[in-house]
Amino acid sequence: MAGELSGILEHVDRISGLDLDGVEPTAHVVALENVLRADDPEPSLPRDRALEQAPDAVDGAFRVPSPQAQ
Amino acid sequence: MTSEALELTAAEAVRRIETGELSADEYSDAWAQAAGGDELNAFLWRADPEQPPVIAAAGPAADAQLRGVPIAVKDLFCTEDIETTAGSRILEGYRPPYTATAVRRLGEAGALLLGKTNMDEFAMGSSNENSGYGPVLNPWDRGRVPGGSSGGSAAAVAGRLAPCAIGTDTGGSIRQPASLCGIVGLKPTYGAISRFGMVAFASSLDQCGPLTRDVTDAALLLRAMEGHDRRDSTSVGVEGGVELPSREDLAGLRIGVARDFSHHAEGVEPGVAETFERSLRTIEALGATIEEIELPHAEHGISAYYVLAPAEASANLARYDGVRYGLRVNGDRDLITMYERTRARGFGPEVKRRIMLGTYALSSGYYEAYYGSAQKVRTLIAGDFDRAFTACDLIVTPTSPSVAFELGARTADPLAMYLSDYFTVPMSLAGIPAISIPAGLAEPPEGGTPLPVGLQLTAPAFAESRLLDAAYALERSLEPLPAASSQGASATGDPAEGRIPPGAAGSGGGT
Lengths: 70, 511
Description:
Largest interface: A-B, 42 and 61 residues
CATH topology of the domain at 2-254 and 459-502 in chain B: Amidase signature (AS) enzymes
CATH superfamily of the domain at 2-254 and 459-502 in chain B: Amidase signature (AS) domain
Radius of gyration of chain A: 24 Å
Largest sheet of chain A: 2 strands, antiparallel
Distance between the termini of chain B: 26 Å
Distance between the termini of chain A: 32 Å
Strand content of chain B: 5-15%
Helix content of chain B: 25-40%
Strand order of the largest sheet of chain A: 1-2
Oligomer: heterodimer
Shape of chain A: flat
Strand content of chain A: 5-15%
CATH architecture of the domain at 2-254 and 459-502 in chain B: Alpha-Beta Complex
Helix content of chain A: 10-25%
């Protein structure tokens, strides 16, 4: 995989030959202004429903292994 | 009756159902039966023909423009309580608690869910060979790829397993498989259709769109799906809505062709180049003028894309960590081991490759050189299109440099695979709409049965109506392709049978 990644990066490096001085970066292509909704509480996904697909859920929360090695 | 119904476009079927010439039940039964005979590994899940799931309550009759039409949905779209894998083993068995807005809107227009289609894992690929559930076979020649990443959707429509389908396009994932399978594929303007409920790959590029038998059906599906959605702040819809196309000619239109970004580009197969030149003559015969334009930075599209898309993907895919849904491996060990083993086993090689590329491009010390520069190249490419559209109304290119290639031909060389999207990536970077329509058949370079070639038309942002109108006029003048199933499969026997890994076709199949 290392060889493949090098080949891809070599191709990507072609852009280093371009004169990019003074060019603005584009993060998003459509000119938009953010729209905020009114800050009114409304129902969202019920907790049980959100936990349904978890590999391990307990007491209304996701359970994960301890960060400490056992 | 059955086989005749399968030959209708969705628009024509809806018309006949409305007038009573066609029974809605018989129509959907015929498609359920067709999808049930999938030998292409196009579907990962199929609805129970006796009890197709209700996607959403259909709206008022006047809005139900897709009433009774079964639709194949790429498995990247969340469907409530129906397995959604994004082609990945890490999401095997995942049943989302909600339905994607695009799918819900199709349901509100009266459409039925026919099945979920196979795809490259997390939409990363151009051949469908990166699926965690086995490759999809091209209905024109089962020894060849259908393109990707929406390969299941394209193969299902071309192979007469579905009347129409939806997919997603991040750098060509609708247009390229449409081209390789000989059907119509539309990538709308970024923001035309909500991304809510679409499993995220590269959020600034991902866009949903239709894969259909003809241009009118593409317009019909776009019309049902487009619009602002409060759940996707980047969705704006298509201003003025989408009209069904009706244009008979191209009189007065200026069609741009960039010399270095057309049939003369390096790596374009002779058959593709010849078909493209024929299309240019058809365009002129329809009354348009061909304008020479320049897209000097388009050739750098692939380089910029393979920084930006993996960078966004590496962030988006951080969520698959064995905590909230999907696979968990070694949950009895410590947290970091669980994370590492889960991702090592759940992701396929291409996904790992892109996560590594993306995290590398975003890492301290390399960020400016890679991500920063790629964002600037994106500006230059968008600027090329802006300037070009002052001199022309639409731009045409081949959709793909090649016809469908053989299974395995590019799997050992990721860069060769990436270059399959040479003509489709720049439009994604610029966020502008583009459509691939079948332009004819051409022999592959090594000879053999002729295979479909696509023509790509590109328009300025939100000029979908102009794009569809021109594609419609052209579609009626270009030679119609024969049905795929009467070509490859039956003529050449079934050379690829057995190529699908055991269990792959059935793993998500049935109901």
